[in-house]
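Recall that a protein's primary structure is simply its ordered list of amino acids. Everything else, from secondary elements to tertiary packing, is in principle encoded there. The following example makes that idea concrete.
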Amino acid sequence: MNLGKVVQVIGPVVDVEFASGSLPKILNALRIKKEGVKNGEGNVTVEVAQHLGDNMVRTIALGATDGLRRGLAVEDSGAPLTVPVGNACLGRLMNVLGEPVDYMGEIKSDQSSPIHRLPPSFAEQETTPQIFETGIKVID
């Protein structure tokens, strides 16, 4: 497990320092654990945006940074953010972390995909008109 610590917080931008030679990859998800918060409800997920040098990375917070301070522990997930995909997601609302925000319980999906990935090649795309089912009645 790769651990670091918060060095600087400026709005949604959080700078994190890691041990020498153990910088996380760009687009990796990091979790900052706030002190005094039960069940991990107040934890903040950030995404690595830039390597600054001197064993530091610049991250973008994907939630409120209220209560963050220098010295808090940061854990590298070792992977980019992933969200559930497939038929279980049709008609559901979720945030960028893949957590449901529609009060309908957990999204039970067998598959998940990273939020940053390569677009499909032109050979995989279709140019014929077809119905795109969104699961949202107003749009469909």
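The first strand starts at residue 3 and ends at 10. The chain has a mean pLDDT of 89.
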